[in-house]
Amino acid sequence: MKTKGFIFDLDGVIVDTAKYHFLAWKNLANSLDFDFTETQNEQLKGVSRVESLKKILAWGNKTVSDAKFQELMTLKNTEYLEFIDNMDESEILPDVPKVLDYLIDENQGIALGSASKNARRILEKVHLLPKFQSIVDGNDVSKAKPDPEVFLNAATALNIKPEDCVVFEDSVAGVQAANTANMISIGIGSQDVLYEADYVFKDFTEISTEFLNKIINN
Length: 218
Ligand code: B16
Ligand code: MG
Known about the structure:
Rossmann fold; six-stranded parallel beta sheet; 9 helices; binds 1,6-di-O-phosphono-beta-D-glucopyranose
């Protein structure tokens, strides 16, 4: 049995925190007298907090001082954390624990590779933190996806070569980051959006142990 490194994105792969990011950003935009759509929100998936706010302000044609920018980031995160603090295991996406437990039983490396600075707190809330050998999140990287830094750091933390790593990602930028890192990319979501991934599944209920064994032993 080979040992591969399995790197999981957080938002959109393990839990659906995108809905909370959307609500918090939307309230912020509304407080500045503009709005944005759920379609625009798609462009914020996998994107760091700073880059998200830059995009949102551009949609609203707003320019703000650096101090105001920092204040808005804090405001958004404070509201977002109120949603996070109400999360529990029921918010874990279908069959994620099953796949994690299978990979752990098969002695595979398991890491988190997320843009979120709140990743540990979220994993703690849904009681999945102990399943991860390594956590690489928005506090550990200087370059956002599609830069491969977050996944390369996760491979280093697992002590597994990038070409022996596999990434589960729901965002286009994340799939591109995995591909640039020379890792196997598995898109979670729609084939139409994630067509650059090596494999795409709607969710983890579609991922069989046969498929995982194939990936492990390839
Ligand atoms: P935070 P992921 C990303 O998580 C989200 O998809 C993205 O919408 C968010 O802006 C980013 O984390 C930063 O999150 O404000 O909590 O630091 O998909 O990379 O797990
Ligand atoms: Mg994501």
